[in-house]
Amino acid sequence: MHIWVDADACPVVVKEILFRAAERTRTPVTLVANQPIRVPPSTHIRFLQVPAGFDVADNEIVRRVGTDDLVITADIPLAAEVIGKGALALSPRGELYTRDNIRARLDLRNFMESLRASGVDTGGPAAFDHTDRKAFADQLDRLLRQRQ
Questions:
Q1: Between these two residues, 11 and 118, which has the higher pLDDT value?
Q2: What are the φ and ψ backbone dihedral angles of 115, each rounded to 5 degrees?
Q3: Chain centroid to CA 87
Q4: Which residues are CB-neighbours of 95 under 8 A, at least 6 positions away?
Q5: Coil, helix or strand at residue 130
């Protein structure tokens, strides 16, 4: 398993959890972003900078992801693409996207986008908190244990 991180908008605390997990389990983790991101020195952790542009990082992750890989992303269309390639997708809040739930998530995302486009204030996501951090760490641990 290789863990790919859609790193541009990934919370710092999630990156820190991933760094510790990479060292503990010797799992390769690659952060992909169009802005430089500092990563700790490690043989298991690397950073891949891509050019700026719409969906450039997402497209690079889709191009590189393998069947048994895991992608960390809050981007629903990206999650759908990697699931279509046989990989797993996990949100920074600990929600595992699957073939069974991704269509509903895409439909909801598209509906909310159409509301915003028509001028409806839909608000934004809740602030990332300790519950989200724990949910992510617990789900990541479950996935890493299953893949061993």
A1: 11
A2: -60, -45
A3: 12
A4: 135, 139
A5: helix
Q: What is the CA radius of gyration of the chain?
A: 15
Give the strand pairing for 70-72 and 88-90: parallel
Residues 6 or more apart in contact with residue 73 via CB below 8 angstroms: 5, 6, 10, 58, 61, 79, 82, 89, 90, 91, 92
Query: 58: closest CA among 30, 35, 79, 41?
Result: 79
CB-based contacts of 97: which residues, under 8 Å, 6+ apart?
76, 79, 80, 83, 88, 89, 90, 91, 105
What's the pLDDT band for 74 if we cut at 50, 70, 90?
A: very high
The answer for residues whose C-beta is within 8 angstroms of residue 56's C-beta and 6 or more apart is: 34, 50
Neighbours of 60 (CB within 10 A): 20
Residue pair 147/1 in contact (Cβ under 8 Å)? The answer is yes
Count how many Cα atoms sit within 13 Å of the Cα of residue 16 in the half-sphere of its side chain.
5
pTM score: 0.88
Average pLDDT, the chain: 91
